[in-house]
Amino acid sequence: MDKIPKVGLGVCIVKDNTVLLGKRKNAHGEGSWCFPGGHLEFGESYEECARRETFEEVGLSIKNLQLVTATNDIFPREDKHYVTIYISAEYDGGKVEIKEPDKMVEWAWFSWDKLPQPLFIPMQNLIKSGFNPFERRR
User: Fold this and answer.
1) Where do the DSSP E strands lie in the chain?
2) Which fold has domain 6-129?
3) Which band of pLDDT confidence, cut at 50, 70 and 90, is reported for residue 19?
């Protein structure tokens, strides 16, 4: 088995004091909630990846992208290791859709102080780091 960490990217999209989260299925972390995102492709910038994944997964456009941080995410049960890069962005347009029904059960907007549970391991690590999308934007 390949033991090289993979690079993932999560997009924290802010709209009206809420953030967008999706419930995962058919992948590691099934049943947990996470931001839109996916794998960084070869030659792709963080911003390009954030825009592509957001549109591919939920059909939204985003603006005011900012690099936030990265987390070191180990999934012992699945024997996987990721470095997850986080981008914050603001909602720019479109209607939330489940564009990849084989990967996500649902998408919904949540208040930061009322996030659904369980959260995806990278999201847990992001929150442990002290990240708050509403404090950064002020």
Assistant:
1) 6-15, 18-24, 33-34, 37-39, 61-75, 80-93, 104-110
2) Nucleoside Triphosphate Pyrophosphohydrolase (3.90.79)
3) very high
Residue pLDDT, tens place only, 60-85? 999 999 999 999 999 998 899 999 99
pLDDT of 107 above 50: yes
Amino acid identity of 41?
E
pTM of the model: 0.94
Question: Could you give the CA distance from residue 38 to residue 98 in angstroms, rounded to a whole number?
Answer: 15
SS3 annotation, 85-100: EEEEEEEEECCCCCCC
Query: For residue 73, with 0-12 CB atoms within 10 Å meaning exposed, 13-18 middle and 19 or more buried, which class applies?
Result: buried
Q: What residues have CB less than 8 Å from 77, skipping those under 6 apart?
A: none
Asked if 58 and 96 count as a contact pair (C-beta separation under 8 A), the reply is yes
| CA–CA distance, 67 with 85 (Å, rounded to integer) | 8
